[in-house]
Design a protein that fits this description.
There is one protein chain. The chain is α+β, with helices and mostly antiparallel strands. Helices cover about 20% and strands about 25% of the residues. The chain has 10 helices and 23 strands. Strands 13, 16, 19, 20, 21, 22 and 23 form a 7-stranded mixed beta sheet that branches. The protein has a 4-stranded antiparallel beta sheet with strand order 1-8-6-3. Helix 3 links the parallel strand 9 and strand 10. Helix 3 packs parallel to helix 4 and helix 7 packs across helix 9. It is elongated, with a radius of gyration of 27 Å.
Length: about 500
C-alpha cells in the first residue's frame, strides 16, 4: 500500500495561497485520474482541482474555508493493490473537533533525489521547495512531539513539516518520469490544450509511454504566464507536531459598534493590485460629456434586426466597438510599460477587459483578440464573459494579458469617476449613466441622451495629446455611429 499526497498547486497566477471552498470527496471515496476533488478560490477565480492519480481517499487535510499555502498537502490518497480494500476502512471525517487517533510512529517523507517538480493537473506543479512565507498564527498549544498522533486536519506548517505525511504511512510516490517527446494525448487533453492555446508539440509529457497528460498541459500554460514559485527545502523531515485543537476559521468579529471582516480572497488581491497600480503608474484622468442619442437609436434598431436575433445588444457593446475603432486610429495607446527592460511594449492585438461585479467581488476578465471580432462575435464574447464571471467560473487565463479595460459605472446611476488602471494595462475607460438632458442640438435646446466618459491612462506611456485624441475619437464615434463604418 502506498500513500500519495496531492499538494495545493499554483493554478497559474503566481500566487502563494488559495482558500478551499468545497470538497467533492470524503475519506473512503474512490477517485480516478483527472477527477475533480475540490474547488478553491485563488486571486479572483474559483478553480476546480482534479487529482492526478487513482486510488482511495485516505484523508482530507484541511476543512472547507481554510486558506492553504501553495505546496502544502491538502489530500492523501491510498494507491496500489490495497487501495480497494482500504475503502472499507474509512478514516475519521474532517471536522474541527476531530479526536486524535492512536499514536502511530511519526511519518517520514523521503526527499526525492532529483529536484523535479511533482506533476499536478492544475498549474505548473509544485517544486520541491515552496515560497518562503512568514509562519501563520495558530490557536492552541502544540501537543507533545512524540506522544500524540496528528488529527485528521493539519493546519499550515513550516517548510520542514510540509514534507511530512499527514498519516502514519511511510514514503511518498515519486514523480512520474518524463516520457518520450512524441506528442501523444487523449482527445480531452487535446481539447484542453486547444482551449488554452498550447501547442502539444512543445509540451514535455510525463504520462506512461510519452503520453501528454492534463497536468502537462496546465504546466505549460502556467509556465507561460506566471513565474515559478521557489524556496529552500528543509534539510530533514521532522515528526508532525499536532495542535491540541484546530484553529477556528476567521470570521467577521462584531463588538457591538464595529464589525471586523478578515481581508482575504478577492478583496485582498484587489486591494494589493489597486495599491500597486496607484503608486506605480502615474495616473491622468480626462473627461468628456457628449450626445449619444444617435447611438441609442442604433442600439434599438439593432435589437429589431432579424439578422442579430438572439444576441444581447446594448450600449456597452457599441461603446466597446467604438473603443476598438479609436485604438485602430491611435495604436500607441495600446501598450504596456516594461520596468525591468525599460521598454514600451506596443501591442498589436487588443485583449479588451470588462470589469464585472460578482458575488466574490470585482474581477476583470478580458475578451481575447477583440480587435479582430465582428459585432456578432463581440456580442457573443461579451455575453459569455459576463455570464461566466457572475457564475464565479472565470478561469485565471481569462484574466491574464489584458491591454485596456472598460468599466460601466453608469449601471449604478453614476455620472462618472476616476478609475484606477488594471495593473499592466495602459488605460481604463469609465462609462457613466446615459441620461435625458437639455442639450443644444442644431441651434436649439432639446432633450437628448447624454453621457460622460472618463479615461484614466498611464502617463509614462500616453501623453496628454495622445490621451485626448483617443478619448475624443471614442466620443466622436458614439456621437455619430456611422463612423463605426467609415473609420473602421
Amino acid at each position: 500500500m502506498t500513500i500519495r499526497e496531492f499538494k495545493m498547486p499554483d493554478v497559474g497566477e503566481g500566487l502563494t495561497e488559495a482558500e478551499i471552498l468545497k470538497w467533492f470527496v470524503q475519506p473512503g471515496d474512490t477517485v480516478t485520474d483527472g477527477q475533480v476533488v475540490c474547488e478553491v478560490e485563488t486571486a479572483k477565480a474559483a478553480v476546480e482541482l482534479p487529482i492526478p492519480f487513482d486510488g482511495v481517499v485516505h484523508a482530507l487535510l484541511f476543512e472547507e474555508g481554510t486558506t492553504v499555502d501553495v505546496g502544502q498537502v491538502i489530500i492523501s490518497v491510498q494507491t496500489g493493490p490495497a487501495g480497494e480494500a482500504a475503502a472499507a476502512e474509512v478514516p475519521a471525517t474532517v471536522t474541527a473537533a476531530a479526536a486524535p487517533a492512536a499514536a502511530p510512529a511519526p511519518a517520514q517523507a523521503e526527499e526525492p533525489a532529483a529536484a523535479a517538480r511533482q506533476p499536478v493537473l492544475v498549474g505548473y506543479g509544485v517544486s520541491q521547495a515552496s515560497t518562503k512565507r512568514r509562519p501563520r498564527k495558530a490557536a492552541g498549544d502544540l501537543a507533545a512531539q512524540n506522544g500524540t498522533a496528528a488529527p485528521a486536519v493539519v493546519p499550515a506548517q513550516p517548510a520542514a513539516a510540509q514534507l511530512v505525511a499527514a498519516t502514519a504511512q511511510n514514503g511518498t510516490a515519486a514523480p512520474a518520469a518524463a516520457g518520450a517527446a512524441r506528442a501523444l494525448a487523449k482527445p480531452p487533453v487535446r481539447k484542453l490544450a486547444k482551449d488554452l492555446g498550447i501547442d502539444l508539440a512543445t509540451v514535455v509529457p510525463t504520462g506512461d509511454g510519452g503520453v501528454v497528460t492534463r497536468e502537462d498541459v496546465h504546466a505549460a500554460a502556467a509556465a507561460a504566464i506566471a513565474p515559478q514559485v521557489a524556496a529552500p527545502v528543509a534539510a530533514a523531515p521532522a515528526p508532525v507536531q499536532a495542535p491540541a485543537e484546530v484553529p477556528a476559521q476567521a470570521a467577521p468579529a462584531t463588538t457591538g459598534r464595529e464589525t471586523r471582516i478578515p481581508v482575504k480572497g478577492v478583496r485582498k488581491v484587489t486591494a494589493q493590485a489597486m495599491v500597486g497600480s496607484a503608486f506605480t503608474a502615474p495616473h491622468v484622468t480626462e473627461f468628456i460629456t457628449f450626445d449619444v442619442t444617435r447611438t441609442m437609436k442604433l442600439v434599438q434598431e439593432l435589437k429589431e434586426d432579424p439578422d442579430l436575433a438572439g444576441l444581447r445588444i446594448n450600449p456597452l457593446l457599441l461603446i466597446a466597438k467604438a473603443v476598438l475603432v479609436a485604438i485602430r486610429r491611435n495604436p500607441d495607446v495600446n501598450a504596456s510599460w516594461d520596468e525591468a527592460a525599460q521598454e514600451i511594449v506596443l501591442k498589436h492585438y487588443v485583449n479588451l477587459g470588462i470589469a464585472a461585479a460578482t458575488p466574490r467581488g470585482l474581477i476583470v476578465p478580458n475578451i481575447k483578440d477583440a480587435h479582430a471580432m465582428t459585432l456578432r462575435e463581440l456580442s457573443e464574447s461579451l455575453s459569455g464573459l459576463v455570464a461566466t464571471a457572475r457564475d464565479g467560473k472565470t478561469s485565471p487565463a481569462d484574466m491574464q494579458n489584458g491591454t485596456l479595460t472598460l468599466t460601466n459605472v453608469g449601471v449604478f446611476g453614476v455620472d462618472t469617476g476616476t478609475p484606477i488602471l488594471n495593473p499592466g494595462e495602459s488605460a481604463i475607460l469609465a462609462v457613466g449613466a446615459i441620461k435625458l438632458q437639455p442639450w443644444v442640438h442644431k441651434g436649439k435646446v432639446k432633450p437628448r441622451q447624454v453621457t460622460t466618459l472618463a479615461l484614466s491612462f498611464d502617463h509614462r506611456l500616453i501623453d496628454g495629446e495622445l490621451g485626448s485624441r483617443f478619448l475624443a475619437d471614442i466620443a466622436a464615434v458614439l456621437e455619430h455611429p456611422r463612423r463605426l463604418v467609415t473609420w473602421a
